[in-house]
Amino acid sequence: MKRAKEAAMVTVKDLQGVVDELKDQASKRASDFLGEGRSEVRRAAGGHSDGTVLGMFALGIVLGAAVGAAIALLFTPFSGGQARRKIAESMEKVRMGESGVTNGETRPMPSATTPPYVSS
User: Where are the alpha helices (DSSP H) in 1-120?
Assistant: First the structure.
């Protein structure tokens, strides 16, 4: 009976070792497969590295902002002089802290003692 228990314990230990080995192999194969997938995606997209893609994205953002600003200036309802004057006035109001930039209405500030939620 004691031998049967020892044989069963050895079998459980052996099975645990086999399971651990299979986990390691599966993990290695999954990372190899993932690496191959990334390589295939890069190759299909033109073979660019992550740094190149990030640089192109940043360039697109900057160019898009410049084109958007140019279009906004071209289609403004004011002449150039009027637009510059209005922008200068708005900037001066912001610097001086005037409320003229907004609609002038104020909202009541919630007091610090009242909770922002309804207590139950």
Answer: 2-44, 50-74, 80-96
33, burial (CB in 10 Å: exposed 0-12, middle 13-18, buried 19+): exposed
pTM: 0.32
pLDDT in tens, 26-53: 888 888 888 887 777 777 766 666 677 7
Q: Indicate the burial class of 79 (C-beta count within 10 angstroms; 0-12, 13-18, 19 or more).
A: exposed
Q: Which residue has the tokens 């997209």?
A: 45
Q: Give the domain ranges of the chain.
A: 1-47, 48-95
Q: Which two tokens stand for residue 70?
A: 């140019």
